[in-house]
Amino acid sequence: MAALGKIRSKGALLMGIIGLGLFSFIAEEAFRSCESSRNNERQQIGEVLGEKINVNDFQKLVDEYTDVIKMQQGTDALNDQQLNQVKDMVWNTYIQTKIVENEAKKLGLRVTDEEMQNVLKQGTNPC
Question: What pLDDT, on a 0 to 100 scale, did the predictor assign at position 90?
Fold first, then answer.
């Protein structure tokens, strides 16, 4: 009974501590949500013509190229030097592709579905 009496006499202090705890919990969640938007910025590894490149998308491209090279060479894994070469190749190819796409769009160049079908049927480039 004496313990309950002490708790009741300190009621305002306890309410303040509980309120502070709840506030800090809510503030922590708000901080985490702001931090996640900053993490998205950290996930960007580069920018080409105003388009940001996400590290996950880049890694997918690297993985695809790595799989192709492993199949061509008949190996299970690439060494560090080969992996770095693949990353450089993917990066350069990505940049070149974006630049060509941008210039083609500026010039109004486009390939129709019929032209693509003809190229696929003939197996050669008509140019």
Answer: 93
